[in-house]
Design a protein that fits this description.
5-stranded mixed β-sheet; alpha+beta; elongated; 12 helices
């Protein structure tokens, strides 16, 4: 957890610097942005974390504090993750409204008439088709990329575990409210529903909470693809960044302790959140691909003018510019590649004298993929964090310490 936190701190600091750049830093960044705009090489720009990545960065950072027993910092960072998700959602909506407004201005300007209007509509249809049916099926499972319940669930988990520590002063109503907010974001999560329905009096005496978090698989990565486009004025390929899905072999996971076995439920479908973000950003993909087509079409038109006028220099220059534009035009394929495909959770209330926990993962047809048993120390509440990659399963745990949350 400590090493992971070091890198999360560095990433968060870099993101903050990007958002609060000074004059000289902005000039340097402008140069990169201008270079990317001129050449079409999008990776020349500084990488900016997407909204859902900023949220997950804080969620994971909160988890590192939780796994090392620092509830106060874990709680504060989890709260920041919740607030950041709302802020990023509002920011995205403003950016979307702006790009839609610019599109409407072009449409209403009268510049797109007759054949040009029909050609543009044809291009948009082709570009929209670059988002596959498989990706659409994943994306439509969530209503936006900003409905990740991980922060709210962790908030409830932190408060609930802290409430089991003697004299912590934690309000059980706050615990139920946090779980309720997580449940509202994912109605399929059984653990969220159980937390919302928890006893008003809290965890019974002689019992403890065992929380299991399983990060499974890998989220979609990005690859460059080429879309061939043919219209009256353009015939060629345009490169764009597309999602590469990485299906997981995991179909279900169970945890057994104290004579009870529970199936873990899906908390965060990272694959769907990323696919949804990609779907909602189709206007940006259209703008990028249309810009590339316009640059290459302009170079071809200049070459034709040079040939007609017998201006070999103009024709040669246009030919070279067109070739450079086609060669340099590349999409940005950078992303946070180690994010999981999905996050599963289970919440168990067991006697304090129960120490053996077994986690099992299963594939298609009930085939067991992996199994791990861990021995818990002491009688305190526990958080178990595990990662699975098909047949691999790694498990770690951290037990509750004395309360350090304010009452």
């Amino acid at each position: 957890p400590y090493r992971a936190r070091f890198y999360f701190d560095a990433a968060e600091e870099k993101a903050a610097q990007d958002e609060n750049k000074g004059v000289f830093a902005k000039i340097g960044s402008f140069g990169k942005t201008a270079g990317a705009a001129i050449t079409g090489a999008e990776e020349l720009r500084d990488y900016e974390l997407k909204g859902f990545e900023k949220v997950m960065l804080l969620d994971y950072k909160a988890l590192t504090y939780l796994l090392t027993g620092d509830y106060e910092k874990a709680y504060n960072v989890a709260r920041r993750a919740i607030d950041t998700q709302q802020e990023e959602y509002e920011k995205f909506q403003k950016e979307l409204a702006k790009i839609e407004e610019e599109k409407d201005e072009v449409r209403d300007s009268g510049k797109l008439t007759g054949e040009k209007k029909a050609e543009t509509a044809q291009l948009v249809k082709v570009i929209n088709g670059t988002f596959t049916k498989e990706q659409l099926a994943k994306a439509t499972k969530v209503k936006s990329a900003y409905v990740n319940p991980f922060g709210d669930y962790m908030n409830g988990m932190i408060l609930e575990i802290d409430s089991t520590v003697a004299h912590s002063g934690t309000d059980t109503g706050s615990v139920k409210t946090a779980y309720k907010k997580a449940y509202e974001l994912n109605k399929t999560c059984v653990a969220c529903r159980e937390g919302e329905s928890a006893r008003e009096s809290g965890i019974p005496k002689g019992m403890k909470v065992v929380q299991v978090i399983l990060a499974d698989g890998f989220s979609p990565s990005r690859v460059e693809k080429t879309q061939e486009i043919k219209t009256k004025t353009y015939n060629g390929g345009v490169n764009y960044s597309d999602l590469q899905l990485h299906p997981s072999q995991l179909h279900r996971a169970t945890v057994s302790i104290g004579g009870q076995t529970k199936q873990l439920s899906n908390l965060t479908n990272m694959e769907s959140l990323i696919a949804r973000d990609e779907l909602d950003r189709l206007p940006w993909r259209r703008a990028m691909m249309l810009a590339a087509i316009i640059k290459q079409t302009a170079a071809a038109a200049a070459q034709e003018v040079g040939n007609e006028k017998g201006n070999a220099g103009l024709a040669l220059t246009a030919t070279l510019l067109g070739a450079v534009s086609r060669a340099a035009q590349h999409a940005d394929t950078r992303s946070w590649m180690s994010l999981p495909n999905q996050i599963l959770v289970a919440r168990l209330i067991v006697p304090q004298n129960q120490h053996s926990v077994t986690l099992n993962t299963f594939g298609a047809g009930g085939k067991k993929l992996a199994s791990r048993t861990v021995q818990l120390k002491g009688t305190d509440s526990t958080v178990i964090y595990a990662t699975s990659y098909d047949g691999q399963l790694n498990v770690g745990e951290a037990q509750a310490k004395k309360s350090n949350l304010e009452s």
